[in-house]
Amino acid sequence: MLFFNELWMSRQICRLGVSAVVAVLALAACAQPSQPPGALTPTRESAPAPPVKITAPVPTETPRPAPTRPPALTAAPSATPTTTPTPTSRPTGTPTPTVTATPTAGLPSITYFRASGDVANPGDTVELAWESIGATSAVLYRLMVSGQLPADGIDVPVSGTYAYTIPPEEQNWVSFLLYIWDHAGRHADATETVRLRCSRGWFFQPPPENICPTAPLVSAAAEQHFEGGTMIWTEAEDAIYVLVGDPTGAPAGSTHWNRFEDMWDESMPDRDPDLAPPEGRQQPIRGFGLIWREHPEIQEQLGWAIDSETGYTTIVQRTTRYKYNAWYLLALDGHIWYLGPECSSWDKLTPTDIADH
Questions:
Q1: CA pair distance 218, 96, nearest whole angstrom
Q2: 133 lies in the same domain as 219
Q3: CA distance 70 to 199
Q4: Do 190 and 208 reside in the same domain of the chain?
Q5: I need a labelling partner for 81 at 20 to 30 A (CA). Which of 23, 168, 217, 285 fits?
Q6: Using the 8-state DSSP alphabet, how is residue 153 labeled?
Q7: Are residues 279 and 338 in the same domain?
């Protein structure tokens, strides 16, 4: 019995020994270093740098040299245009003044810019003269009839003269612009206008506007009056004018007019037999009737004709502006039909004299 007790105790001791060994080995494993022997622990300096986001540098404004054409004048040509000849008519008696560096006293200025005459005839030659202070460059422009700046100008001295021959077909006026600037791009400009005598006059007096007219057009015509306006036919233009409203005592803008091509010919019916005008009224016929029937708005605005169309001889002229021109027609009763620009309004004028044509 004692033997069996000793044997059981020795087995328990062996088991405890094995468990202890296992425990010791486990503790040893927990105490192992995190890196193999001899490995270097990385320091902050040797650690790899985090990725850097590269941002493109914002461009800064770098000083630029003064432009050869001031920015304010976008239509000006380069400093030395190759398509425009340099004027050859500069007088030798007016030397170009010596211009120093960018003036410090102030902006460049134009002392004067003038023409040899205020009025000229188409085809005449006018001399332009100018003087400037503090400028290093100058360009002379002949303005377009619309008043706009052309693409090209003429390089001229900062002070001097230039002879310009007016084209014979020009009307009303010619205008010029002188543009000067210095090395810093500071600039100044001045304009000069020469009025042109008209090559032809108005067919009636007094002249309605201070502007040249077209050549007078003498034509066979017809006129018919309506409840709400008038129709006028001119053979030379093959046109029909429709005048709506009554300008007598009417507020501005209450009248208007339009112009149509006369499309009627003898192969067409001259009237609509199904239309019966009221007593004392008439249906317009032929060219007047065709427009009246095909344009309901005109039929509504004019109403019925109050008399028959009557033939006579008219004279037609209009103004010669770049745009927004007015028309003038001799009326059946000897007055003048005035038709405003862009069909805006119409009126009837009383002339003091009608020229013979």
A1: 55
A2: no
A3: 40
A4: no
A5: 168
A6: -
A7: yes
Summarised one tens digit per residue, pLDDT across range 58-107 is 333 334 333 344 444 444 343 333 333 333 333 333 333 433 344 445 89
Residue-range definition of the domain harbouring residue 254: 204-354
Q: How many whole angstroms separate alpha carbon 178 and alpha carbon 192?
A: 8
Phi then psi for residue 19, to 5 deg, are -65, -40
Contacts of 81 (CB under 8 A, 6+ apart): 152, 153, 155
Pairing state between β 187-196 and 173-181: antiparallel
Cα(233)–Cα(260) distance, rounded to whole angstroms?
Answer: 10
* DSSP reduced 3-state for 178: strand
Residue 135 and residue 258 share a domain? no
**H helix count then E strand count, the chain:** 3, 18
> Between the CA of residue 243 and those of 81, 239, 280, 318, what are the distances in Å?
52, 13, 21, 17
User: What is the CATH classification number for the domain harbouring 138?
Assistant: 2.60.40.10
Bridge partners of 224, per DSSP, are 231
CA distance 196 to 172: 5
Same-domain check for residues 266 and 186: no
Q: Which residue has the tokens 């405890």?
A: 16
Same domain for 191 and 211?
Answer: no
